[in-house]
Amino acid sequence: MVIVTIKEWDTLQEIPETITSISQAAELTGLTEDTIRYYERIGLLPYAERKANGHRFYSRDQILGIIFLTRLKATGMTIEEMKHYRELSMQGNSTIPIRHSLLEKHNQKIQQEISRLMETQKIIEYKLNHYRDLSTNPDLSDTNCNPTTPSTNPLF
User: Fold this and answer.
1) pLDDT in tens, 47-96
2) Ramachandran quadrant class, 19 (left: phi over 0; alpha: psi -120 to 50; beta: rest)
3) Confidence (pTM)
4) Domain boundary at 90, 121, 151, which?
5) Beta-bridge partners for 58
6) In the predicted model, is pLDDT for residue 138 greater than 90?
7) For an engineered disulfide with 72, which of 19, 77, 122, 130 has Cβ 3.0 to 4.6 Å away?
8) Structure confidence at residue 59 (pLDDT)
């Protein structure tokens, strides 16, 4: 799956007004064609408009919306929560306070996950430094706490 950064998000504004095929939409969003069709079928995405030949076509706004949904999903929002958010957005500006609240709560969850990941990263960096020290100084013992007792837990 393609991960779109903020910088790339700005670049996406250069997407043509109309995307001429589902394969182009898939390439731009990082989803498969089947996933896009599935999201349409379950109501997460509106059905794409169709040309006279029956082929789907998408607007730039639809592509940006799909990318936004992929970011919500990548950060742990469930499909049901995303569908609820989309349903609210379809109801217009009167639901902005509710949508704001939903995104605020989701953002808080993301911040908590970032904090947890940063703590995990610190632990891993500690172990990496420990192993780096061991590899550069063979006289050091690979122990957790007591330098005279070898570690008995192979995970540590």
Assistant:
1) 888 888 888 888 888 888 899 999 999 999 999 999 999 999 999 999 99
2) beta
3) 0.72
4) 90
5) 19
6) no
7) 77
8) 86
40 in the same domain as 107: no
Q: Tokens in use for 73?
A: 């999903």
Label residue 40 by pLDDT band (50, 70, 90).
very high
**Which residues of 43-151 form beta strands (DSSP E)?**
49-50, 56-59
Rounded CA separation 145/131 (Å): 14
- What angle separates helix 33-41 from helix 22-29, to the nearest 10 degrees? 100
Q: What is the mean pLDDT of residues 97-122?
A: 97
Given this model, what pLDDT does residue 6 score? 47
**How far, CA to CA in Å, does 137 sit from each of 51, 78, 109, 130, 149?**
69, 48, 42, 10, 17
**Who contacts 132 (Cβ-Cβ below 8 Å, separation ≥6)?**
none
H/E element, 76: none
Domain holding 126, by residue range, is: 96-137
Residue 24's closest CA among 53, 49, 2, 57? 57
